Amino acid sequence: MWADTVLILFISICTALLGEGKEVKWLTWLMVYRTEKYQKLKAEVEKQSKKLEKRKEAHGDSLDKQQKKKIEREEERLKNNNRDLSLVKMKSMFAIGFAFTALLSMFNSIFDGRIVARLPFVPISWIQGLSHRNLLGDDYTECSFIFLYILCTMSIRQNIQKLLGFAPSRTASKQGGSIFGPPPQQFK
Amino acid sequence: MSRVKGTDRLGNGNKSEPSIWIRAITANSEWTDKEEFLDVIYWARQVIGIIVGIAWGLIPLKGFLGLLLFVLVNAGSLYLYFSSFQQVDEEEFGGAWELTKEGFMTSFAGFLVTWIIIYSGLHYD
User: Fold this and answer.
1) CA distance linking residue B109 with residue B70, whole number of Å
2) Do the chains contact at A117 and B116, CB–CB below 8 Å?
3) Is there a cis peptide before residue B60, judged by omega within 30 degrees of 0?
4) Which spans of this chain does the record mark as coiled coil (chain A) (predicted)?
5) Do A112 and A1 form a contact (C-beta atoms < 8 A)?
6) Which chain B residues are closer than 8 Å to A183 by Cβ?
7) Is the CB of B110 less than 8 angstroms away from the CB of A122?
8) Looking at this predicted complex, what is its ipTM?
9) In chain B, fewer beta carbons within 10 Å around the N or the C end?
């Protein structure tokens, strides 16, 4: 049993590292960042935002109607491009999510019905469904794979993110952050 | 979403100040960067979580008492640390509750994992 416990800890360290590590970066790079479409879009967005800022700075408050319209049009285009960019990124997020789901279900079937650890406490009833999943008997101190895996992931993933500096800053997460995950500059 | 590099990690202290490690163990240090202090709190929590997990597993402490004692030790020791050892102004960080919350869930998960692993390894098998 203890071998299983340690193995699960090891698995969750690996998956957490994989999620943050080079492999996924590489996959994303292969799927998204390398593609011409993405490069073009990115360059354009950068160029546009710079141009827009400059124009705003140069004119200050004294804008006539025509210039205002021009800026508005530019902003609209920038918004559209930004949206396209996140769509491209989303594609890779889905692929990664899919791969991880497949991995998890594989481990789930390997450890199906096996007691992987003994809990030193009896979990409250709404957690028992998770901690005693697919286990026989009424001894609720027996622990199933999924519960231990979730706990390991909870503790390891965030610490790794923080250690590597990938965790979103506190102010950013307070403001809600982006639903598309980490900022693009970390994928370099 | 911009992130200031360096503030997320431990050990990247400002050059004019002593390193973050030294400030963390010196009483009444000055914390110009709030993120740095929050990082110290965060990592202290993780270390406490793991140490307490190992201790409870070795004893072995069981049941609800173990969970309760962990919460008390974790919240209590860190509260003493920031309120009497460092004497920071809690309001600057949004109150004592915000400081108590910092990294608590992660530390709790880490505590459970070490507790369960040590307990299963030593007392079953």
Assistant:
1) 11
2) yes
3) yes
4) none
5) no
6) 1-3
7) no
8) 0.80
9) C
Residues of chain B found within 8 Å of residue A152, distances taken between Cβ atoms = 109, 113
pLDDT digits (tens, 9 = 90+) for B30-77: 888 888 888 999 999 999 999 999 999 998 888 899 999 999 999 999
Give CA torsion, residues B98, B104, B105, B111, to 10 deg: -170
Helix (H, G, I), strand (E, B) or coil at A138: coil
Using an 8 Å Cβ cutoff, are B28 and B89 in contact?
A: no
Hey, what amino acid is at A113? Answer: G
The model's pTM: 0.71
Tell me whether A16 touches chain B (CB under 8 Å): no
Q: Mind listing the pLDDT tens digit for each residue in A151-164?
A: 999 899 888 888 87
Which structure tokens are listed for B73?
A: 């030790």
How far is Cα A41 from Cα A94, in angstroms, rounded to an integer?
20
Distance CA A154, CA A159 (A): 9
